[in-house]
Amino acid sequence: MDWEPLRRLPPYVQVIVVADHDPAGENAVSKISFELQRRMKVLRFGEDFDRKFDLSDPFPEELYELNDLGVRVYTGPRLEQCLDPATWATRADGRLRAEFVEEWYYTVKPAFFLPKDDLSSLRGLTLAVPFELFPIPPFIYFRKSADNAEILSGFRISLSWHMPSKIRPRQGDPGPWLKFMEHLIPHPQDREAMKRATTGYRS
After folding, report:
1. Domain count, the chain
2. Which one, out of 74, 100, 112, 184, has a CA that is 20 to 30 A from the CA of 178?
3. Residue 21, CA distances (Å) to 5, 24, 31, 62, 186 in order
4. Of 56, 88, 120, which residue sits at a domain end?
């Protein structure tokens, strides 16, 4: 395989390897990443897809449903949800490659790696724990976008972010969910705040 045309692509061009959903396809990703020595992502098909599935196969019927208008719509994972970082991490001397370092945060407390372009991994961490991320230059910097805000001060970073729900709204009776929320969060104001934060629902 001649990888040179891909190696010569400008750094800002995104390279995505689509792995067949079997051991041979997924194991090949690391070998391709080593050969390319450039920023790369891999698209992996998860448990919603049969083993040996590849992108040319028809998507499973279970990932479609009829909407209220009787139109067949796809309800499975979006392709961007199947993307993972796949940049080769180390140089020949064992040191980390600059491209790899630029793609990742490392939290010291708790010890945790997370990709900079997907902070959803923080959902499972206790937010009261201070995050110390390296390498960070010793200056103060604030960056805010529509969904995320980052405050960098010295060698610490504080993160606040909003990750929109992947659940798509549709017509129906919210009664069972509202009843569960009353059981889960007895205090009315706390319950309303949680409903607004997680779904945008207002009584």
Report:
1. 3
2. 74
3. 26, 8, 16, 17, 45
4. 88
